[in-house]
Amino acid sequence: MPPENKPRLTLLLASPRGFCAGVDRAILIVERALEKWGAPVFVRHEIVHNRFVVEGLEAKGAVFVDELDEVPDDRPVIFSAHGVPKAVPVEARRRNMIYVDATCPLVSKVHSEAEHHFADGRHIVLIGHQGHPEVVGTMGQLPPRAVSLVETVEDVAALQPPDPARMAYVTQTTLSVDDTTSIAAALRARFPAIVGPRKDDICYATTNRQAAVKAIAATADAILVVGAPNSSNSRRLVEVAAVAGCRRALLIQRAADIDWTALRDVRRLGLSAGASAPEILVREVIDAARRHFDVAVEDVAVTREDVHFNLPRVLAD
After folding, report:
1. What is the mean pLDDT of residues 73-91?
2. Of 201, 217, 237, at which residue does a domain stop?
3. 8 Å CB contact between 177 and 153
4. Where on the phi/psi map is residue 208: left (φ > 0), alpha (ψ -120 to 50), or beta?
5. Which of 28, 146, 253, 316 fits 142 for a cystine, CB–CB 3.0-4.6 Å?
6. 161 and 241 housed in the same domain
């Protein structure tokens, strides 16, 4: 359709968006492992929550499995960026396996905090989502019943810790900043002696992407977030957009998922991507928008990121 026949659309491109340093590192770990040991290299769980990324690594020779018993003893295995319970590397060592831990360093920081508090005799409260791999991994750093999981302010009211005077809390790194603040406030109100993180557990990338979405929400007719349905940080972006004033906030995996007919009345469209969604998928959405609209792209940046995490020593050569 000629540009003069297309409705005009201002596309508000949130920044930062997409890959964070932990995701970059995790993907590079798989690629370097394939270079070092050849295919197949096994990966326990999705390395990051994005099918496009996973399928790309599968094409290079990565094999994704649910548990270690699916991995031959003589092939390398990589643990996902979300972290794993301590029992997993223990089992890998028992079998003399080559393994590489791709846990995001910011998740590892939460693990260390929880272990430190436990060693000091505190009961740990984890703010997070039941069943998420990061939560499973964090709870798995400590013995059973050492950690209580809370998802809401209401959960805080129901807590019955062993000793209310000896408690600490940590959080999943990919939560809504605002929701977590209210839950942490409820914990401090009910348990005044509770010890919080020395530095916020919610990672810089989650915080920055939510701030960028807030910056476009008030003036956008609709917002699209590129990300996987099992990506916690992507789903939180949709929620943040709605709370910040844009009720038409949608999670999409690819441009092909978009119902452009339903968006035909939109004149200001926000676009962001979760921390595990590659920029190529964002560009795919922009190209698709141009087929339906006369598009003017407006970059809305709230900060600039320059974080980098080193590779594990075994792959750093």
Report:
1. 97
2. 201
3. no
4. alpha
5. 146
6. no
Render pLDDT for 148-182 as a digit per residue (tens, 0 to 9). 999 999 999 999 999 999 999 999 999 999 999 99
Is the Cα dihedral 287, 289, 293, 298 positive or negative? negative
| Cα–Cα distance measured from residue 151 to residue 196, given in angstroms and rounded to the nearest whole number | 16
Give the sheet arrangement for strand 249-252, strand by strand.
249-252, 222-226, 268-273, 8-15, 294-301
Query: What's the pTM?
Result: 0.94
Tell me: pLDDT of 56 over 70.
yes
The answer to whether residues 240 and 251 belong to one domain is: yes
Interval 289-311: pLDDT, tens: 999 999 999 999 999 999 999 99
Q: Identify whether 134 is a catalytic site residue.
A: yes
Q: Does 161 share its domain with 219?
A: no
Query: 212 and 187, same structural domain?
Result: no
Q: What is the pLDDT of residue 238?
A: 97
Choose one of 147, 182, 201: the last residue of a domain: 201
Q: What's the CATH number where 130 sits?
A: 3.40.1010.20
Helix (H) or strand (E) segment spanning residue 79: strand 77-79
Residues 194 and 111 in one domain: yes
Residue 306 domain-assigned? no
| Domain carrying residue 138 | 105-201
Work out the mean pLDDT of the chain and round it to a whole number. Answer: 96
User: Domain tally for the chain?
Assistant: 3
> Distance between CA atoms of 125 and 123, rounded to whole angstroms?
7
Indicate whether 317 pLDDT > 80: no
Contacts of 116 (CB under 8 A, 6+ apart): none
Q: Which of 31, 134, 239, 279 is catalytic?
A: 134
Q: How many CB atoms lie within 10 A of CB 247?
A: 11
Give the count of beta carbons closer than 10 Å to the beta carbon of residue 239.
Answer: 17
Q: Is residue 315 part of a domain?
A: no
Is position 13 within any domain? yes
Report the C-alpha gap between 309 and 108 in whole angstroms.
Answer: 12
